[in-house]
Design brief:
Keywords: Metal-binding, Zinc, Zinc-finger. By secondary structure, this protein is an alpha+beta fold. The chain has 2 helices and 13 strands, in the order ββββββαβββββββα. The chain folds into 2 domains: 3-107, Herpes Virus-1, CATH 3.30.40; 111-224, PH-domain like. The chain is elongated.
Length: 225
């Protein structure tokens, strides 16, 4: 998908030429709180003057003094080319998201193998599941082929095992995914179960499911924006 470089008051962004091609995990730039509406820092209440200047957080758009908005952190969900100024609270969130973009997104794109059961069928098919490079589709390949648009996914439930009363760690072993068929209100369900063939497959599947869980949270946040 073609991209273009655009400049906003917040900085340079590399965005898709067509909005329909944007990542489903993306966020729009927030409107800035007007200068005239914030005579004081919205964090520490310091009064702004000639020496204490105003700065806007690029993630939330609120107004802060330099001390409360000094960190410059990558913000890939808004497609910024360089790290941008953010308040302490937003910087912490963005740092955690950067880990998703640097590590877990690659896991999703590399894919993992699952037994996939469609709807109420009692038959399952071994399929390689991966996220498309443009992050817009969940691609399933086996004897059959499916491409599920990420924005059409309504719910994702991660299935786990291994919980013990003593607080033992759980392990992701599958998921149940529901999505809407484009052009219809019909909801289709798929169940993904990790392959038990090799222990390495189980580990890879668990990592893929953990990444999918994080991706789902980002997807819900984007919709609630």
């Amino acid at each position: 998908d073609a991209k273009k470089l655009v400049r906003s008051p917040s900085g340079l962004r590399m965005v898709p030429e067509h909005r329909a091609a944007r990542s489903p995990f993306g966020l729009d730039e927030p409107p800035w709180v007007p200068d005239k509406e914030c005579p004081r820092c919205m964090q520490c209440d310091t009064k702004f003057d000639f020496i204490t200047r105003k700065h806007h957080c690029r993630r939330c758009g609120k107004c802060f003094c330099d001390k409360c908005c000094s960190k410059k952190v990558p913000l890939p969900r808004m497609c910024f080319v360089d790290p941008v100024r953010q308040c302490a609270e937003c910087a912490l969130v963005s740092q955690k998201e950067t880990e998703f973009y640097d590590k877990q997104l690659k896991v999703l794109m590399n894919g993992a193998t699952f037994f996939v059961t469609l709807g109420t069928s009692d038959k399952s098919e071994l399929m390689v599941c991966r996220l498309s490079n443009n992050q817009r589709y969940l691609v399933l390949d086996g004897d059959s082929h499916y491409e599920i648009e990420i924005i059409q996914i309504s719910t994702v439930q991660i299935l786990t095992e291994g919980f013990t009363p003593g607080g033992g760690n759980t392990r992701a072993i599958g998921m149940i995914l529901q999505y809407k068929v484009p052009g219809s209100e019909e909801v289709t369900q798929m169940k993904f179960t990790a392959s038990e063939d090799f222990s390495c497959n189980k580990k890879l599947s668990a990592s893929w499911l953990a990444a999918m869980h994080k991706a789902t949270k980002l997807l819900y946040e984007s919709r609630d924006q």
